[in-house]
Amino acid sequence: MNAPPDLDALWRAARDALQRASSSDHEPPALSAGAMRRAGFAPVHAAPPVAPTSRRDVPMFAKLLAAVIASVLAFAWQGGATPISIALAVIAFLIAFLVESVRVVPQQQAWVVERLGRFSEVLEPGLNVIIPFVDRVAYTHSLKEVPLDVPEQVAITRDNTQLAVDGILYYQVTDPRLASYGTSDYITAITQLAQTTLRAEIGKMELDRVLESRDEINKSVVSVLDHAARPWGVKVLRYEVKNLTPPEAILRAMQQQITAEREKRAMIAKSEGEKQQEINLAEGYKQSNILKSEGEKTAAINKAQGDATALRLIAEATGAAVRAVGEAVQTPGGLTAANLKIAEQYMQQFGQLAKTGNTLIVPSNLSDVASMVGSAMTVLERTRSLEAPRA
Description:
The protein is of the alpha+beta class. Helices cover about 60% and strands about 15% of the residues.
């Protein structure tokens, strides 16, 4: 008689096979390192997208293997083909078929199903049912927006200057069917197309324009890629140039140009400041002279008006004094008082002759005060005789 099989070992083998089948059904495999290198990006910079091609041949084989192992365990446990062992074997195969027919698609993913080698349908997120052995999940795609690092490359501008350029591309799978059958590897396709388009766009521009026209370059690359990727079921959302690195010699020349330009601006600003300073000083001197002349004019006018007023007042005062003297002379004893006043003033003025200078003009009859007073009185008499007819 043959020895009974090790039931524990068989149960462990069946459990492991079922776990591998279940995990392989619900976790799409990641893109391999070789495919990532061919696509031109490293997983350090961007998370690897879901593989565009994922064959589903092995999982069903694992499920059937688990069912066979379960049947063998049932037959070994019952010691032959008993109704219980047959029922357990049938249940194991039904479970395997049920697990194979049920597919749970995660959110923002699309699974492409082939029926007998031809495209059948695209499984939407949620619970889906397929026909085992007839249908199989051939491709899985992520519908999320995926960043793709475009490797650095050397491009030549219109003025024959080399530039090291790299960028980042954002794309999204919009049609899972076209993404599965439109191209063998859409990641490599859009990466290579992005590089060639970028080189072509930079080749149309000179260095200075390239450095200041990143937005224009990004829009041109996105336009070309979006048009070309439509048959692949992929939409290119945007492209961003990350770095534009000229050679060291060009960088030094650019730095010297920037320095010279700043020095030029500083000198222009300084000269403009000095010019404005001179203009301000001249304008201030002009305004000062105008104000000074206006002040002198006003002062002269005021002085002339004051002098005129003073002369008028003096004349009026003199006239009033003369009238008062005339009136006093006409009164009784006025003439004698006038003679006395004239003689008194004559003596006062004669006493002041030698105080203000060394040169004197002395009249010949200096000692004849009476004759001087008589002459003055004669003048007064004549003045009174002339004013009498007027009265």
